[in-house]
Amino acid sequence: MKTTRRTLLKLAGGATFAAAAPAIITTRARAADKRIAMIVKNLGNSYFDACANGAKEAAAELGGIEIIYTASAKPTAEEQIAVIDAQIAQKVDGIIVSSNDADALVPVGKKAAQRGIKVMSFDSAIAPDGRIVHLSASSTPLIGAKQVQMIAKTLGGKGEVAILSAASTMTNQNAWIEAMKEEWKKPEYAEMPLVATVYGDDQDDKSYREMQGLVKAYPNLKGVISPTTIGIRSGAKAIVDGGLTGKVFITGLGLPSEMKDYVLAGACDTFAIWNPVEYGYASTMIMADILGGADASEGKELSMGKKGKTTVGAGGECVMGEPFVFDKSNVEEFAKIF
Hints:
Elements: H1 2-11, H2 27-30, E1 34-40, H3 46-62, E2 65-71, H4 77-89, E3 94-97, H5 106-114, E4 118-122, E5 134-136, H6 140-155, E6 160-165, H7 171-184, E7 194-199, H8 204-217, E8 221-226, H9 229-241, E9 249-252, H10 256-265, E10 271-273, H11 276-291, E11 301-303, E12 309-311, E13 317-319, E14 324-326, H12 331-335
Parallel strand pairs: 1-2, 1-3, 3-4, 4-5, 5-13, 6-7, 6-8, 8-9
Antiparallel strand pairs: 10-14, 11-12
């Protein structure tokens, strides 16, 4: 895994994925003989599988930590709560969650805390009352703005655009969409109206159908933004299958391994993502630091291992880094990695 990360950093040119000077893992941060459950939105999601690989890498680096990677079959709050309850019953030491519903998970987060279990979120936040900190891969304003900028570049700033999101309750999706709308207020997008927002619930078949529905409902549609790895790959497939390559373009957040063929085919010009392996790695390092006694109050620093340190902001918000843009010039190289 260490070789993989070094390759990735080299490909990124030391810009987006460049690591800070290696952090010294202190005795406090070792948190030996601990069990950490990484609970994600749903099974069968390669993005989260990559996050889990990063978590396991961090655990191996620290020593004495067991990673329990689990999720529900469907991305609903009810099923996710049941999974969390099961881990509470197993008396794990820490829980890292990508939330399906920010508010619905607060009570079970509090339940875990009452039993001495540390809870943090990543990718999609639990509301502050239900966890200690949340690690964002990047800042919400930057992620939202980047996606609008990418589709504007592809379309030359002209043409109807729609959004294909995941579930309407997902915290990160909604935050990114609001950030997109803020970017959209700028005068350079006056000829690029947002005509619709639809939800594929992070399911391939539904996302595919929603994309087909958008094309039928809006015959002048030129672009689609999908801030979800499942949505962008399913939307791109619908474009190719429907013979719409070169007529409708999709962008958003995707994995190079899943988007390579669609980029080379011309259904997607550019897309962005952070390194999910590093995201899982950084989240696990933060949890280990907390389990080792680190102060996670506002203004304090937490260790992300070789990723450096992050400062805890208001509401327990932390940031890992910035997203990176992929296109025909680099997608094939990165597709070999994740």
